[in-house]
Design a protein that fits this description.
Keywords: Membrane, Transmembrane, Transmembrane helix. The chain crosses the membrane at residues 6-24, 59-81. It holds the Pfam family DUF5362. This protein is an all-alpha fold and 82 residues long. It has one domain (2-81). It contains 3 helices and no strands.
Length: 82
Amino acid sequence: MTYYIVAFVIIGVISLIGTIFAGIQINKSMGKLDQVGEEGQEELLKKDHFKTHSSNLRVLTWIYVVVFLLAIVFFLLYLFLK
C-alpha cells in the first residue's frame, strides 16, 4: 500500500512540475505581447509567435492523460494484488 501512495505522490509531483513549466512558458509569451504596442502585437501574431500555446495545451493534455491512466493502473494493481 505504501508503494502505491508513493507512486501516486511522485506522479502528482511530475504532473504539477509539467503544469508549472507550461504556465511559465505561456506567461513569457504573454509578457512579450504586453511589452509591444498594438502594431507589435499584430506583427507577433502574424509571425505565428503564439503557436506555442497550442503545443502547450497539447503537452498539458498529454500530461493529464498519462497521469490519469497511471492512477487507474496503480489503483487496479492495488485492488488485485492486495
